[in-house]
Amino acid sequence: MDFMTALDIGASALSTERTSMNVISMNLANAKTTRTAEGGPYRRKTVVLQATEVDHPFSKQMKTAMDRDLRGVRVSQVAQDSRPLKQVYEPGHPDANEEGYVFYPDINVVEEMANLMTVQRSYEANISSMDAVKTMYNKALELGRS
Fold first, then answer.
1. What is the full DSSP assignment across 76-132?
2. Mean pLDDT of the chain
3. CA pair distance 27, 33, nearest whole angstrom
4. Cα angle at 55 between 49 and 58, to 5 degrees?
5. CB 16 within 8 A of CB 73
6. Full-prediction pTM beyond 0.90?
7. For the chain, N or C: smaller number of CB within 10 Å?
């Protein structure tokens, strides 16, 4: 494995963490949304990740068998959560039904914040691994100079 492969794997992880952060932010922003363009309340979304190759077809042919097992990650889809909606009695709300109930998305702010902290820690870990790769590469260059 060359150092660029390690950086490619780290970059794929950073890209997926960014998407996860965007989806969590969207869930937090719409925690009380009762109307959407599709109709009805907002539905919570989750990110589905998938392991993927990080090499181009040409470079894949030049790698050893051990290097071919290396995988990055990518977002395979942003899925809609199937949790039931929360029903709250608010007869004065403009979106209340005939019985006075309003349907809200089932978004737990504490759960979303915990997910956001997990994404943040994962992002920081990937940055640290990329910094370690860069440091190792620089040390190898210094050895080559002396």
1. EEEEEP-PPPEEEE-TTSTT--TTSEEEE----HHHHHHHHHHHHHHHHHHHHHHHH
2. 89
3. 10
4. 150
5. yes
6. no
7. C
